[in-house]
Structures are given as structure tokens and as C-alpha cells.
Prior knowledge:
By secondary structure, the chain is α+β, with helices and mostly antiparallel strands. It folds into two domains: 2-73, Glutaredoxin, CATH 3.40.30; 83-234, Glutathione S-transferase Yfyf (Class Pi), Chain A, domain 2, CATH 1.20.1050.10. The protein contains nine helices and four strands. It has helices spanning 18-30, 62-73, 83-110, 112-128, 133-154, 161-179, 192-205, 212-218, 221-234, and strands at 2-6, 34-38, 51-54, 57-60. Helix 4 crosses helix 5 and helix 6 runs parallel beside helix 8. The chain is globular. The model has no long low-confidence stretch (mean pLDDT 96).
Amino acid sequence: MITVYKFASAWDQPDLSPFVVKLETYLRMAGIEYKGVPGDVRKAPKKKLPYVEHDGRLIGDSSFIIDHLKSTFGDKLDVGLGSTERAVAASFQSMIEEQLYFIILYQRWQDDGGWETYTPVLREILAGAHVPAPLRGLIASSIRKGIKKTLRAQGTGRHTRAEVDAIGTRIVQSISDWMGANPSFFGQNPTTIDATVYAFLSAIMDTPFVWGVKTHAEKLPNLRSYVDRMKGRYWLR
Length: 237
């Protein structure tokens, strides 16, 4: 049995982190049995979540975990992909995980309106971890300060809200343009990249944050139907 160490569910999401949702979605797509439990970043091999325990081994980073799963259980999802499709998948994955991710972080942690929406959930998580009530606000503020510092070092934190919205909007439009009327990223059948695309689009479209990227994504019917279809196929049965 594979154990996935994760954060916590919130809103309409199985987890706060799109990387956790990506991993869990892949496991469901591949038909690999697992259990999810609350994780502790201090025990994680890379000091981040998610990580997994499998056959006594701890593995961190969602992409390395999926590589391990493929080598262990086989890769039926991507068997039909050619070199060009694999290159396209790698490019979109990098754009989503290395750029859109920080756009999502900006909305949740740096933007004041997003932070106001996010704070109650963060306080609930801290309460579930048995953090004393008087300390929850202090800890939440300390985490926010650290993430804002990371965002500034990465570059996204130096942009205005309008600039961040413009970058995120361009990315979700690119996903929509590529997919067109296809039910999955590469046509009829979902492949590994769909786990990433679904997780990050859902983190934007199925959460209560109000921002330009979400507004634009909701205007793209192929993305709305895609997220609903993936959710129905892998999370509602």
C-alpha cells in the first residue's frame, strides 16, 4: 500500500496543494491503490508535501513520485505518446508547475483579498494540528511572510495584481487553445499530463477566490467541461 502524505482538503478540493491533487489524480488514473494521511513537512525528504512511503522508502516531489510509480507499476497512460507529444507535455507541465503555481500562490498569500479568503481555512488546519488558538494568527502571519519572501525572490511577488492576472490569463488561454474540443489534453484518452492540468485548473476554477485568472478561465467552456469531466471520472465515483 502506498501512503500519500498531504495537507488537508478545503472548499471543493481534495487538498489545498495542487501538487497533492496532481499526485492523487494520477494514482486514480493509473488504478493504483493508496491511502492519504496528514503529512509533516519536517519529516518529508525534501521538506515539502506531498511525499509518499512505499516499501519502506520515502520519496518526495510529485514528479519524482510519479516516475517511481511508473517504473514500479508500469506506464499504461502514456504508452501511445510519441516524442513530439512528450515534448509538448513536458513544456506545458513546466509552464503550469513553474509559473502558474506561483500565480496561484500570489493570489492566496500575497494579494490581500485572497489572503482574507484563505485565512479561515489556514486557521482550521492549525486548529486540527492542535495549535493553541492564541498562536494561530501569529503562525499564519509568519507563514505568509515567508511565502511572500519566496514569491519576491522567484519574481512573481514583484509584479502588480494586474500583471499577475495577465500572466495567469495567458497561461490558461494557452491550455484552452491547445486542447480545443478534445476531451483530454491529447485527444480522447487521458494521459499523465492531465493529472497536472486538472489539478491546477481546479485549484483556480473550483475555489472561492475572486480574481481575473478565474474569471477568464470560467469564460472558456472547454476548460469548464474538462475540469468537470475529470472530477466526475476520478473523484466522484
